[in-house]
Amino acid sequence: MLYTSDSLSQLIEEFSLLPGIGKKSAQRIAMYILKLPNEQVERMAKALVNVKEKMQYCVSCWNFTEQNPCSICSNPKRDRSTICVVEEPSDVIAIEKTNEYKGLYHVLGGSLSPLDGIGPEDLKVNELLTRMNSSVQEIILALNPNIEGEATTIYLTRLLKPLGTKVTRLARGIPIGGDLEFADEATITRALEGRVVV
Amino acid sequence: MLYTSDSLSQLIEEFSLLPGIGKKSAQRIAMYILKLPNEQVERMAKALVNVKEKMQYCVSCWNFTEQNPCSICSNPKRDRSTICVVEEPSDVIAIEKTNEYKGLYHVLGGSLSPLDGIGPEDLKVNELLTRMNSSVQEIILALNPNIEGEATTIYLTRLLKPLGTKVTRLARGIPIGGDLEFADEATITRALEGRVVV
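ok -> structure tokens follow
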């Protein structure tokens, strides 16, 4: 027999279901957990249950939140004239990390993907439209740079532009710290198209 | 603010303490957990607490176990004349995976490392000596191929050989599936030294 205990196999099984964790990492983590102090493991188990119990979607931006509306939507210092549209809550975190953006967000919950049967009705598109009042002056489309993200960007642009709001998207180009030599053709093409006067 | 909730930050924090999981992976896992069904997350939390509650050390081989003695030590089909000495419980799993070894194990709980202040008294060395009765005919030293493992192998060989038991160690050489071109000098040297007649 491989594992000398059922509870150990069970734990390894649970961990190996998580993204980016294979069978080997799951085993390594489980072995590590066996050596941790009881309190730390209990704290971890509690954090797991806690996060599921407390988490809900913000009624305004559809980000994960513990309170409604979320801390960004309810923050009086945020600029209410700009809404940044993203696919997932993790994208909000990525943008917040820059400390550059002071507007609001709208989490679509994915991107358009006809092959997977995901249409506009599966995303929070109608919820975005209901937020489009006169105080909103700019919509920044910050979708992922892949086919689905592109399709969603085009779809939303067509939908939002007639409403008279300024619609922008993130710049494409060579990433900072990237090497021109290793950049792909599509990225270099976009960087050339978007060149700026210095 | 980066995360819109304390319980989310707490979960990310807990996950990032695990081996091989950085801040980014922890965030990715936490986001994934938020989308899992409640039952699965509760099952996972329970598995964590369970494993700590049920796990103990086998009084004979010092492997992790739920029952005492462990399922390997109490298995009448295992060959009681051979004891394979390893550093950690994960090494037992690695050897069990081969389905080749039918003897017993002894888990030292680490290797000798004077720099880290780990001496023989910190490992289950005395516990190994108490197992050395007349029925034990071979001790296989399966320690890690690094300086600490080497030192432990030499130490244990000196300790066990005078007792009249056969003491062996795992063969060193080119790993299966490995490429001779990319093998390091030390490995090739060991493979040459240990060459066998075909």
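Chain A touches chain B through 59 residues (CB under 8 Å).
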